[in-house]
Amino acid sequence: HGKQWYQRRVPITAGGDIVDIKGCGTVTSGMPYKAYHGKTGRVFNIAKRAVGVIVNKKVRGKILAKRINLRIEHINHSKCRDDFLNRVKKNELVKKEAKASGTFVCTKRAPVNPRTSHTVKGKGIVVEEVCPIRYEFIA
């Protein structure tokens, strides 16, 4: 309950950071307009208590890059690149090991194959057939 402290917020240290916009109801100043809530953008300006964020907004079939200013309570660091950066680190290690052993390794992502077909069997369970009730017209 109550207002959040600045120490609890993750500080934005550099322009270019990717952030998620999430309006915090305890701080009413510097709130994002409802169209920007839940969007992801890139920081372009850092002020004392606020940051400038570039966000894409769809306006009449066009996607415009909008620049908005928000207080730091209304943004969070985005985790959208974490998976990508972890994959890059893992691929570099795999390539290094493959180069040392003299083998080739493919680091491309491959789609997961569908599961094989199987029959689900219940042990001692009576199968109940579910069907809709017939409509009866009462005049």
Task: Give a brief description.
The protein is 14% helix and 24% strand. It contains one helix and five strands, in the order βββββα.
Secondary structure topology:
Elements: E1 18-21, E2 40-46, E3 50-59, E4 62-71, E5 75-77, H1 82-101
What report would you give on this structure?
The protein has one helix at 82-101; strands spanning 18-21, 40-46, 50-59, 62-71, 75-77. By secondary structure, it is of the alpha+beta class. Strands 4-3-2-1-5 form a five-stranded antiparallel β-sheet, with no helix packed on it. Strand 2 and strand 3 form a beta hairpin. The longest helix is centred in the middle third of the chain and has 20 residues, at 82-101.
Main sheet makeup: 5 strands, antiparallel
Strand segment count: 5
Shape: flat
Strand and helix order: EEEEEH
Continuous helix count: 1
Mean pLDDT: 88
Nearest-angstrom radius of gyration?
26 Å
Instruction: Decide which structural class fits the backbone.
Output: alpha+beta
Strand order of the largest sheet: 4-3-2-1-5
Key phrases:
about 140 residues, 5 strands, alpha+beta
